[in-house]
Amino acid sequence: MSETAPAPTVSLLLVDDDPNEDVILRRMAAKVSTISIVLHYRQTIADALDFIRTQDGLHLVLMDNRLHPTVDFRETVPALRQAGFIGPIGVISSSLDDPYFQAFEDYGVDFRIDKSELDATAIEFLIREYVIRE
Amino acid sequence: MAGLLKNHRRYELERDLDKALNRVDFFRIFRSMALRYAFDHFGIVHLTNDGDASLLSGRLILHDLPSGMAEEYDKRHRFSESSVYESLITSAIPSVWTPADIELASGRNLLRQLGFDLLVCIPVAAPTSGSRYGVLYLGDQEELARGPFMELCYETVCAFDYFYRVALASKAGMGLTPRETEILRWISYGKTASEIALIVSVSEHTVNSHTATILKKLNVVNRTQMVAKAIRERIIQ
Q1: Which of A110, B25, B26, B187 has the greatest number of CB atoms lying within 10 Å of its CB?
Q2: Largest CA distance in chain B
Q3: ipTM surpassing 0.85, yes or no?
Q4: For residue B2, what pLDDT is reported?
Q5: pLDDT grade, residue B52 (50/70/90)?
Q6: Is A130 near chain B, with CB under 8 Å?
Q7: CATH label, B178-232, candidates 1.10.10.10, 3.40.50.1820, 3.40.50.720, 2.40.10.220
Q8: Which residues in A lie closer than 8 A to residue B201 (C-beta atoms)?
Q9: CB atoms within 10 A of CB B173
Q10: DSSP A113
C-alpha cells in the first residue's frame, strides 16, 4: 500500500491595513489543498517588525503596497530586511502601474502581484516557486 | 527589450511585456492570457531530448496546473508517447484538440488522461538558440473561433519570446549588473548566501538567483571557478 506524503506546512505573514484582506486571503489559502498554510496577519509595519523579530520559521511575507497613512513598499520592505528577514517578500497592490514598481528588486522585493490576480492557484505557485523549491 | 525593433509588432501587449522582470511576472502574463480566452490552465513545455524525455513534469518550465497533476500523469503515462507531443515535434503549426479526436490514439490521449475537454498547443521557438517549446492551454469550454484563436497564438508567440529572453536565455558573455558584481564580491570574501542576503538587504532567494545568473554569464560551473574567473577577468580585484 502506498502512503501519501503529508502536505508541507508553510508559514505566511500578511501585512495589510485592511483586515478584510486577511479574511479574503484566509479563504483563498484554505482552497490550497496540497499545502498546509499557517497564515499570520499584522495590520501595521511596526507589528510586522515585532512579529519578524520574535518569530522563527516564517517562510513568506505578503506586503500590501500602501500602508496607512502614506508609506509604500519602498519604505516597508527595506525595514523588514533591516530587521533580518531574508525570506521572500511579495508586494500586493490593486495597481502595479506606478513606475516605481519597475525597481521593486532594488528594495529587496522578490515579486509583485495585483490583488485581482491573487487566488488559490497563484498562492500555490508562489509558495512552490519561493518556498518549496528552495 | 534588446534585440527587438518597432517592426516586431506587439500591439497593446508591449506595455506589459516590457515591464516583466521575473518568472512571477510571466506566470501572471500567461495565466491572465489563459483566463482571458476562457481556459483553466496553461503550461510551457520544453521539447528537448535531454534528461528523461518521457516525463511531463520534467518538461514543464512554467505552469499553473493543479499541484501534483503532472506527477500523477507521469505515474501512468509517457508524455513523449502522446499524440499531442508527436504533433508538437512534427509540426510548428498550432493545434487544437478535443478528447473525441480520432487522431488521439487510445492510450495516448493526453486530454482524457488529464481530464480536460479542450487543448490548444502552440509550438514556439527560442530566439537565438532555436530550442523548441510548446505552450499548452487547457480548459473545458467550446473550441475557439478563428479570430480569437489566431490572437491567442500571436500573443503567445510574443509572450514566450519575452519569457525566453528574460528568464530562460543563457546569458553567457553578457556583462554583470552592479548588483551581480556586488554579490560576486561578497562571494569572493567567502560569505554564504544567507549572509549576503543580510548584508545587501534582499532575500536569500534573490542572492541564489543572482548567483545562478553570474554562473551563466561567466560560463562557469561553481562558485570557486566563478571567483577565479572574475579575478582573472579583472571584474573584481
Answers
A1: A110
A2: 65
A3: yes
A4: 72
A5: low
A6: yes
A7: 1.10.10.10
A8: 78, 81-82, 108
A9: 9
A10: E
